[in-house]
Amino acid sequence: MDIKLRVEYLADHPEVIPILKEWFETEWESYYGPAGPGDAYSDLLAYANRGELPIGVVAFFENEVGGVAALKSESITTHSHLGPWAAAGLVSPLYRRRGIGTELVRAIEQIAKSLGYARIYCGTSTANGILQRRGWQLMEVVKYNGEHVSIYQKAL
Q: pLDDT of 15-62, one tens digit each?
């Protein structure tokens, strides 16, 4: 990993939760915005774990918050029989195309493996390239909350 880039547990950096809350509310406004059903702050607080799901990680690029991701037991509700899930992945527009998304996925994979999971899943409409480069297999494309979402799996 580039010395400019590090990925650490969100549990070790609760001070970044307000920044990430704003990101979630902007990126996923229909869910986390004022009219949406989600509560970004509560979700991010829930990700501040180390040994049990959900577990969040945060990326720092040159000591600035660059991205976030989580390992969750559930994500795509139509596929609740699968899990755990790499989810809540978001890289700041200021830091995209610098390998942060790849390092977040790598960290989530390592956490899942360390917890004894043999397989991991992800539903995405934007991170297909990252997942494919990391060896994830496309299972199917579904319509979920009005958009096409690709469901991937990876053996760990």
A: 999 999 999 999 999 999 999 999 999 999 999 999 999 999 999 999
Both tokens assigned to 98: 């610098």
Beta bridge partners of 59: 7, 67
With a CB cutoff of 8 Å and minimum separation 6, the contacts of 115 are: 51, 53, 71, 84
Q: What is the pTM of this model?
A: 0.93
Phi, psi of 149 (to 5 degrees): -125, 130
Partners of 8 in beta bridges: 58
Task: Kindly list the domain boundaries of the chain, sorted by start residue.
Answer: 5-117
> What's the fold here for domain 5-117?
Aminopeptidase (3.40.630)
